[in-house]
């Protein structure tokens, strides 16, 4: 049986692109896990994989349509992915109460830093947009 690419229609190519985008995301997560295991960094492999994805998208200058098509449903239903971790918190309620003050301080500091960095980046982007006239 000969493999003929002439028979692959637009839907077939779209499916292959989606499959490649999904493989890219999974591969970057795997690469992040492998990098953390090899280096011993005290980070989650998934976070390193996301940083690799960010670097790749920054080098490319945007998000390819196929990656957007793969990630959009995941982002739309993100809360469903968080249900197991929220349920797991109930298992450690006593431990959380034991360290409630430290937990609250870390949550407030992390939220404040996130807001400050987000505001700083937004100001820089808006200033850059005003300077370029767009």
From TrEMBL:
It holds the Pfam family LrgA. InterPro entries: LrgA/CidA (IPR005538). It comes from the Bacteria. It is found in: Cell membrane. The keyword Transmembrane helix applies. The keyword Ribonucleoprotein does not apply. It is a multi-pass membrane protein. Keywords: Cell membrane, Membrane, Transmembrane, Transmembrane helix. The chain crosses the membrane at residues 41-62, 74-95, 101-122. This is CidA/LrgA family protein.
